[in-house]
Amino acid sequence: MRSLVILFIFLSIASCQSSSQPEPVQYSVPTEVEPYLKSFRDEASKRNKSVSTDNLIVTFGSAQSEDVCGQCILETGKTPQITLSSDDFCWKTASVNERECLVFHELGHCLLNRAHKTEKFPNGAYVSLMNPDNVAVYATCRYPIGGDECDKRDRRDYYIDELFDATTPTPVWGN
Ligand SMILES: [Zn+2]
């Protein structure tokens, strides 16, 4: 218990120090991730949301959080930092939509201050791209098993609406 208190005091001091000396604005995004940043900016402006992506670092590495393939670290005064897992199934062999879902989920944490949302619609689909269990909410299936679960392309607009506005009403297919 005492160590927890000391840790808390230490973190308080650390956060005070970092906020008094903010890191400079910096933008560093791998070339293969840049198209998804562009798409994020496009989707934001389509919805008249002003979201700056000017201060952001994205790297490939090993993500260590409840998001299997990614991680966002947000600290006061520091540049938001996203780590995408370099495991093949997270990126190399993932589809364009799966990659977009992953990047948008982490941008939701890092640029939109969104937390996880675990609720599901009556039909069992996740309410939000911000669910921690399966971010590929509108990605088409990699394997030809057929059925409704594999045809999620029409859901993309809803999930991106919800990403930028958590009060977006339930779509028809959610019931
Ligand atoms: Zn997450």
Plain-language structure description:
Keywords: Signal. The protein has 175 residues and is an alpha/beta fold. The protein is built from four helices and four strands. Strand 3 and strand 4 (81-85) form a beta hairpin. Mean pLDDT is 84; it is low at 4-14 and 142-146. Residues 67, 105, 109, 116, 132 line the site of zinc ion.
Question: Could you give a quick summary of the protein structure above?
Answer:
With 175 residues, the chain is an alpha/beta fold. It has one domain (24-174): Collagenase (Catalytic Domain), CATH 3.40.390. It has helices spanning 2-20, 34-46, 96-110, 156-164, and strands spanning 27-28, 56-61, 70-73, 81-85.
What is the overall shape? globular
Largest sheet: 4 strands, mixed
Gyration radius (Cα, Å) is 18 Å
Fill in the CATH topology. Answer: Collagenase (Catalytic Domain)
Instruction: Give the total of beta strands.
Output: 4
What ligand molecules are bound, each kind once? zinc ion
Tell me, rounded to a whole number, the average pLDDT. Answer: 84
Oligomer: single chain
Given as residue ranges, the uncertain stretches (5+ residues, pLDDT < 50) are 4-14, 142-146
Tell me the name of the CATH class: Alpha Beta
Label the structural class.
alpha/beta
Q: How many angstroms does the end-to-end distance come to?
A: 47 Å
% residues in beta strands: 5-15%
Strand order of the biggest β-sheet: 1-2-4-3
> Architecture, according to CATH?
3-Layer(aba) Sandwich
Number of helices: 4
Order of helices and strands: HEHEEEHH
The level of helicity is 25-40%
* Domains (count): 1
